[in-house]
Amino acid sequence: MTRWDEVRGNLVDWYAVAADRTGTWTRLGVRHYDKYGIHRRRERLLQELGAHTQRLLTVEGISDLEHEPTVQEVLARLAALDGELRAKEEEIAAMRRRSGARTPEDEPHGASRTLPPATLESREESQPGA
User: Fold this and answer.
1) Among 31, 45, 97, 94, which Cα is nearest to 74's?
2) Domains detected in the chain
3) Nearest CA among 30, 45, 121 for reference residue 77
4) Mean pLDDT for the chain?
5) pLDDT digits (tens, 9 = 90+) for 3-49
């Protein structure tokens, strides 16, 4: 086998891995978009619940909201959306585990959001009056 055959074989392998990873990230992106849609529907239901609550309290003078049918209906729909959201999050986590993608649990708490100590010290030293 010549050097060019090895290079060609490596490139073919690399393209196959890249295509597989691209497909995986695309599927993850679609799931995240679905999760965003569930969040939006949930937010609208919470707004609807607030409108019902305000109407019942101010206009109709009803203070026992727990037994109101409109409130019960909205709460049931919210519970269903919460179940969908949990299922979607579990699906995303399972896909990440199968693909070997890093998850937020892989990072120490807040590790990606903090600066290294040396950077923090150099920032403090560079500020006047510090």
Assistant:
1) 45
2) 3-96 (1.10.287)
3) 45
4) 80
5) 888 888 888 888 888 888 888 888 888 999 999 999 999 999 999 99
Q: How many Å apart are CA 16 and CA 3, to the nearest integer?
A: 20
CA distance 2 to 19: 26
Instruction: Locate 100 and state its tokens.
Output: 């070997």
Question: Residue 38 has which token pair?
Answer: 């569930």
104, 78 contact by CB (below 8 A): no
Integer Cα distance of 35 and 29 in angstroms: 10
**Is residue 83 predicted with pLDDT exceeding 50?**
yes
- Would you say how long the chain is, in residues? 130
Q: Find the DSSP H helices in the chain.
A: 3-54, 69-99, 117-126
- d(Cα 87, Cα 102) in Å, to the nearest integer? 19
Structure tokens at 80: 């269903």
What is the pLDDT at residue 77?
A: 93
